[in-house]
Amino acid sequence: MQLSLTWLKGLLILTIVGSCFFGVGGHGSWHNFQTGFPNARPGFSGFMVALVAALWAYNGWNDVSQLAGEVKNPQRSLPIALIGGVAIVGMLYMLTNAAIQYILPASAIATADRPAIDAMRVVAGGYGSLLVSIGMAVSIAASFVGSAL
């Protein structure tokens, strides 16, 4: 169940990213990456402030170490799982944020309650919003199943 939900979650994220970058209608612009928001911290310091807030959303990577007794060859498998997992999640996170930034300028993202839903609404209307909602439900279910195990 965990493996299926994880693959489904990744597929939904890649579908959202692909829809934003390659969706029909040319809704996005590379110019959006050059937009800013007044009073925002630019550069590396702004990235680090945003990273602190984003890391609160990453729950689950720490659950891997609790399963060490159930894994064959944990000395080899756990570092691969931890490093690989963080790398994959980081890549998906950056791709998703880049896709949202491609569709929405920084000012719209900063004032939005749900930027991913807003971006997908621009790309695919109500169906885009539904896709993000389904992705969130699958993500919550996968986290619950992983933590319960």
Return the domain count: 1
- Helix/strand structural class: mainly alpha
Unreliable stretches (pLDDT < 50, length at least 5) are: none
Order of helices and strands: HHHHHH
How many alpha or pi helices?
6
What order do the helices and strands come in, and which of them pair?
Blueprint: H1 2-22, H2 43-55, H3 74-103, H4 106-111, H5 115-124, H6 126-148
Task: Describe the fold and architecture.
The protein is mainly alpha-helical. The chain has one domain (2-148). The chain is built from six helices and no strands. Helix 1 packs antiparallel against helix 6 (126-148). It is globular, with a radius of gyration of 17 Å. The relative contact order is 0.18.
Compact overview of the structure:
The protein has 149 residues and is mainly alpha-helical.
Could you name the key traits of this structure?
mainly alpha; 149 residues
